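Structure tokens please, single chain.
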Amino acid sequence: MLDDTDDTDIHPLFAGAPSSTEFRKLRKRLVRETRAAIDDYGMARPGDRWLVCLSGGKDSYTLLAVLHELKWRGLLPVDLLACNLDQGQPGFPATVLPEFLSDRAVEHRIEYQDTYSIVTAKVPQGRTYCALCSRLRRGNLYRIAREEGCSAVVLGHHRDDILETFFMNLFHGGRLATMPPKLLNEEGDLTVLRPLAYVAEDDCERFARAMNYPIIPCDLCGSQEGLQRMQVKKMLDEWETRSPGRRQVMFRALKNLRLSHMLDPQLFDFASLFPKEKSPH
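Here you go.
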């Protein structure tokens, strides 16, 4: 797809992209895997409008660039609106994302809501902020999507986020569940999409670093030690080091579920499972 196009014919989000073969392969892989996830899970409906959530981290920059690449190539028939929710964290560089998006001609909305004060006031000392912070953020993003006429809230969660969530639910929640690539919200009026579901975190990091995008760290969650997600991430890193490719094998398992070989009687009718009676001679 990219080999047949002029490198000068690119979206402004790719301005200054490295010309190396290695980067071209990375870029093509990101586009291919994102397009595959969009197709596999039926995410795109022609004429829809997507609210693409941009935190300023490597994953959301990658999401934004790849979606615009697909749209630029005529492969994504939806309108894209980038959105950053400034949650009032101390020291947050409020001008970085507006300038980044304006300089690259990306349609966007910047929303300020001080959820930081709410989270720090309500969460007891020593407890993690992630659950409440995420709930408040999601509520605001749903509201913005409705105000902007969007049918979908699009998030930058990648393959490794999905795997980590699976193991967190397994170890701490007592259930087999993870973040699906496509989800209908409780009200039934918005879908939550994760087009990077097939993309490895390392590829997001390499891409954002090569493009020199201005990364904004999350100091709220990142400053707390002992988070369950970080423990799971360390475990997966160790497995991957010992057995390269282990993450991808485990991810494939999430798409290859055998209900008859699990233990949930609500999803498989074990009660009626008996051998056929032998016919009398």
